Amino acid sequence: MPEAANGGDLTCEECRQREFAAQAEEAAWHNPSRNFVVTNTLLAINIAVYLWMVLFRHVSPTSPGTDQVIHFGGNFGPLTLSTEPWRLVTAMFVHIGFLHLLANMMGLFVLGRLAESLYGRWAYLATYFLAGIAGSFGSILWNPLGVSAGASGAIFGIAGALIATFLVGKLPLPKESIRYLLFTLVAFAGFDLLYGVWKEAVDNAAHFGGLFAGLLLGLLLGHHLGPSPSAKAFRERLLFAALLVLVLFGGFVWRKDSYVADVERARLLIARGGLDEAIRQLEVAVSHRPNEAYLLNMLGEAYTKKGNFPKAEQEYRRVTELKPNDPVGWTGLAQTLGLETKFADSAAAWVKAAELSKKNAAAAPWFAAGQTYAVIDKQEEAIKAYQKALALSPNAVEVWAAMGFAQLKAGQNQQAVTSLEKAVKLQPGNADFRLILGNAYLAVGKQDQAQEEFFQASKIRAAIQERLRQMQKTQIQKPGAAAVPQAAPSPATPSPATNTTK
Description:
- By secondary structure, this protein is an all-alpha fold.
- It has helices at about 1-5, 15-30, 35-55, 65-70, 75-80, 85-90, 100-120, 120-140, 150-170, 175-200, 205-220, 230-255, 260-270, 275-290, 295-305, 310-320, 325-340, 345-355, 365-375, 380-390, 395-410, 415-425, 430-445, 445-475; strands at about 75, 145-150.
- The protein is elongated, with a radius of gyration of 32 Å.
- It starts with a helix and ends in a 25-residue tail after the last helix.
């Protein structure tokens, strides 16, 4: 009545909301020319980050590694809960392969346009980020030592908000249309959640966290749609209150899982040599999560560097029990067994690691298996392992040389000549390879070729010795400079690898 007395709009607030909702729905589905600034910006940022990673940082377009996901901002509890809380947000823009990006961007394009029309730009953007951060916290709460990334938590939040709005909001749409929209949204959320239960690698905790946050926001936003000052003021107060609740939830997550911050400190301590303190912190973390393979691997590494090989073996064996199909635990166990001089068991562990590794990563454990077999004089097994390594990495010069030496010891003299010739061709300046090749030539009766290889090896070593003398002379002429020690010639036989980079 006061508005009518002043010539204002006679439409009641509820009717205005109905009219606004009808216009928003029409714009979202039937007006493609409308400029959805927030949705388009979010799409552009996600796609740009993916292209930057793939095109300029050479990340795999289909299956980036865990370390790469962490490097570019993925959510990882030991970092997020210690010194890098910004990962709660950056993880929302990092995707694990093209299919992951495509699925999320399709969902964002469809749901984002409708949400931006209904809630307005700022409320929609705030809902997106609040739900996404809630999803990141949910991921840490469920698995604080896992690595997660992607926009799905935020997108589930938008889906949850829309579901709640269609349930409680007084929208001027036919019941059939509302039922259809609700069915579509619930089917979208339900299918993805069930897929996450079936597919181990899907981070369902982030989905549930984002969906729950979106449902709560949508229940309240659905009653206060439209551009009226009162509706805008309510949305502002609601989103501010939601931010406070999110901060409290984050505090709860940090309090519950704060021990994982010590995991990152332990990793740094291991790198710097502070092994005793690193082991203490890792044992505290293991007491919270005794079946976490990541922690046990780190503990095994710390014990190995400390020289406590029996304890390291114990930790790595536990890893292989928890994750029998993960090559990381078998690699650590193989290294530790080699350091304990349990070479037969070490070789078997290397074979297991090689069989479980992806194709591109299997060459190194096959090579290590071959070297370990060679130490216990099982040359036939060593040759087979070297052959498998070369099938994956045909230009690995060290493998050619090691196989040639194993063939020579096994009496396969002609095969040894072929392998060693390949090694020398790939690395002609290696005196050791030429010495072994000379011995192989002698074994097959090629005296002249053997003499030539021995001569070339002596020339290479003489050149190295002369270079060392020159360096030593230069250093002595400098006041206070330390002399360069004379390097002993390296052995003609390749030594067994007992430690490899993981």
